[in-house]
Specification:
mainly alpha; two-stranded antiparallel ribbon; 5% strand; two-stranded antiparallel sheet; 462 residues
Length: 462
């Protein structure tokens, strides 16, 4: 009889949905440790690992090992791309539970693993895969989400998020004009407009463009990726795609690959990291991009350097020409201010949603649905961050990691389906508040951000 032991690798926050570790006696006298929710990271332009990813593609299987029918099977970071075809939409067979979803008690997950009803372990090396419950569960969930996507209009799939990005572009002139005023309130309004628009374009826009979620056209996806990532964000599109999509999404919480380790700076103490370090992100981002160009092809490096320079100079020129800044120093200071406006929540969100959650080794890791339910956490709805960062980085991060090609609006739409499915199957659905995560990281900074994170051992005993 196959039994699994889940040892504690992380800890949950003290928010209202946090879990406290429990010890459950599994059948046969085997003690099984459960572990709690923790944070997740999605830094689009950060180097996320130094080891090239191995093959991560797979196709979901339905119960009994049969493949889930689909018009295509292209993958992204090991995640299936949802297929849309001419088949009529079917009503979703599951309704979301009323009220905010609660995190599944860990004892339920422990019982599930101990009873052998799930297959959390992925075979090492080239070992053959079975018809494991993990693939069957993910295939079943994908079918439900595909039904929702088929029944959604273009406006729901792409239009809502494209409209938010368009409004941000249209609001930029008002922000630059407000900076001409000598009134402090109007000046503050201008900085706020430019700051929020900057993060909407660079975080939400770059994130969606990198995943190809803005349009179904591959050509336009590449255009938007270059615009949002290189022109607006001052980072390399190729490295953003590799570090975020291939590594972070393909190997979420796998040490040495997609473990968000680039967010850890052990040399900094907790207060410097949480309060001062975010202000350096606008300066560090283009510097990291230029450093990465040394290993890029000449043509790609020249293009990236040109587009990054274009975006930075355009911002500087508009401040001097439209906003009327008389000295280069004042214009550069305003650039830094607007580009740092939401830097603190940006850094915090990227560490809150993965770091501190279960970590896995390269040779053995859970099946994808278990990896995402264990290693990803949702924050509650926050209007400002929902607008500037997108639902997929805030309240729908679990949904985004399971189905990364869905737009922010679609992630929000399928959230009841995903949460209801995971609860029904007694899988973890981690949620916690921003304030609870903040307090947790301040109190356990050494453990999460300085010490080497322990590997969660999912040991299979024959």
């Amino acid at each position: 009889m196959l039994q699994r032991t889940l040892e504690r690798a992380g800890t949950g926050g003290r928010g209202r949905r946090s879990l406290q570790p429990r010890r459950v006696l599994a059948p046969g006298g085997l003690r099984t440790g459960a572990h709690p929710p923790a944070p997740s990271a999605a830094f689009l332009g950060s180097p996320a690992g130094r080891v090239p990813p191995g093959p991560a593609g797979w196709s979901p299987r339905a119960a009994g090992g049969a493949r889930v029918p689909s018009t295509h099977h292209d993958t992204e970071g090991g995640c299936p791309r949802l297929a849309r075809d001419s088949a009529p939409a079917r009503p979703c067979s599951r309704r979301a539970p009323r009220g905010a979803p609660q995190t599944v008690p860990q004892s339920s997950w422990v019982a599930l693993v101990a009873a052998g009803s799930a297959e959390p372990m992925e075979p090492a090396g080239g070992a053959p895969r079975g018809n494991g419950g993990g693939e069957a569960l993910l295939g079943e969930l994908e079918a439900l989400v595909r039904d929702v996507e088929r029944a959604s209009s273009w406006w729901e799939r792409h239009g809502v998020d494209c409209a938010i990005l368009a409004l941000s572009l249209l609001a930029l002139p008002a922000g630059f004009i407000c900076l001409r005023s000598e009134n402090v309130l109007v000046l503050g309004l201008g900085i706020t407009i430019l700051g929020v628009c900057h993060y909407t374009l660079t975080v939400k826009g770059s994130h969606l463009a990198t995943h190809g979620a803005l349009t179904e056209s591959k050509g336009w996806s590449k255009v938007w990726e270059l615009f949002f990532v290189e022109v607006c964000s001052a980072f390399s599109a190729e490295y953003a795609h590799y570090g975020h999509v291939k590594l972070h999404h393909g190997y979420t919480n796998v040490l040495g690959l997609g473990d968000s380790s680039t967010w850890r700076l052990p040399c900094l103490n907790r207060f410097v990291y949480m309060f001062l370090a975010p202000l350096s992100i606008p300066v560090i981002t283009p510097l990291v991009a230029v450093e990465r160009l040394r290993r890029a092809e000449l043509r790609s490096a020249v293009r990236t350097l040109g587009l990054i320079s274009l975006g930075l100079y355009a911002h500087y020129w508009l401040l001097r020409s439209v906003s009327g800044f008389r000295s280069p120093g004042s214009a550069l200071l305003c650039m830094l201010t607007t580009r740092s406006l939401l830097a603190h929540p940006y850094l915090h969100v990227n560490i809150f949603q993965h770091i501190g959650l279960p970590m896995f080794s390269r040779d053995k890791k859970p099946r994808r649905i278990h990896m995402m339910s264990l290693g990803v956490l949702n924050l509650p709805r926050l209007p400002l961050l929902d607008w500037a960062f997108g639902h997929s980085l805030i309240s729908c991060h679990v949904e985004h990691h399971l189905f990364p090609r869905l737009s922010d609006n679609m992630c929000l739409k399928v959230k009841p389906v995903v949460s209801g499915f995971l609860h029904e199957k007694q899988l973890p659905y981690n949620e916690d508040s921003y304030l609870a995560r903040f307090r947790l990281f301040l109190s356990r900074y050494e453990e999460f951000m300085v010490q080497t994170p322990p590997i969660t051992e999912l040991v299979g005993l024959q």
